[in-house]
Amino acid sequence: MNVTVFRHERDAAVALADELLAALARRPALVLGLPTGRTPVTLYRRLVELHAQGRADFSQVTTFNLDEFLGLPADHPGSYRAYMTRHLFAPAGIAPAQVHFLDGMASDPEAECARFEATIAAAGGIDLMVLGIGANGHIGFNEPGAGLSARSHRVVLKAQTRRANAAFFGNDPARVPGEALSMGMATILQARRLVLLAMGRGKGRAVERMVNGPVTPRLPASFLQLHEDVEVMLDEAAAERLTRAQS
Ligand code: F6R
Question: Is-contact 82 74, C-beta < 8 A?
């Protein structure tokens, strides 16, 4: 893993947006894997800025989001599709036909996961996957446990994850859906390049275990050690334990 520590969150967002711009210049029909959550907001804001300046053309990209709540209509403000439309797709001119989600309203979630996997394969796989990390080391909604599902699957969310997602559910974790659909770790690891963003002290322990700890389903992010092309972008607070472990 290549780890880069930035002074501020915004510096990491600018660096990753520049990388995306360079990748788009090489391959306008780039296939992207994208996360939601608080962390990528700064990146999406930067991409929207670049688009407004006429420096980023997303008209040929295809995107795959990592996860979606189960039982939530796409137009619910708490859905990850609504989040993506708000933060990136609408302001950056990315049309609905270019974007792919696991459908949280699918009547047959298992069939929906298989459909999603087949769509990724038909797109030729994911070129660049942007990731965040949960304080418990989850990636997408691959939660820590005794084992991991390789491919896209249905998950029961941990209480900590439901608390972290409460903002769009009246700050009430009980109203956050208890289940979700998530891309599997093997699907994530098949992307050609992974870039993980982690900001703030709250992520420090998970980041340190991801980089230095054993590969274990108890910390799904540790599986990123198995990939050949991983960039980890941190701010100083998220890197603090790592720097301490290395000094
Ligand atoms: C969401 C996702 C999650 C988040 C993680 C961190 O699509 O992939 O794994 O990246 O929960 O969330 P924030 O950025 O809100 O700390």
Answer: yes
Q: CB under 6 Å to ligand 1: residues?
A: 35-39, 66-67, 132-134, 138-140
**Atom 11 in ligand 1: which residue has the minimum CA distance?**
134
Tell me the CA distances in angstroms from 89 to 34, 95, 99, 152, one per residue in order. 11, 7, 8, 23
From 16, 138, 187, mutation site for ligand 1 pocket: most ligand atoms within 8 A of C-beta: 138
Residue 221 to residue 146: CA distance in whole angstroms:
14
DSSP 94: -
For atom 10 of ligand 1, which residue has the closest CA?
132
pLDDT digits (tens, 9 = 90+) for 161-189: 899 899 889 999 999 999 999 999 999 99
Listing DSSP states for 199-225 in one string gives: -SGGGHHHHHHHHHS--BTTBGGGGGG
Please confirm, yes or no, whether 136 is among the known catalytic residues: yes
pLDDT in tens, 54-109: 999 999 999 999 999 999 988 899 999 999 999 999 999 999 999 999 999 999 99
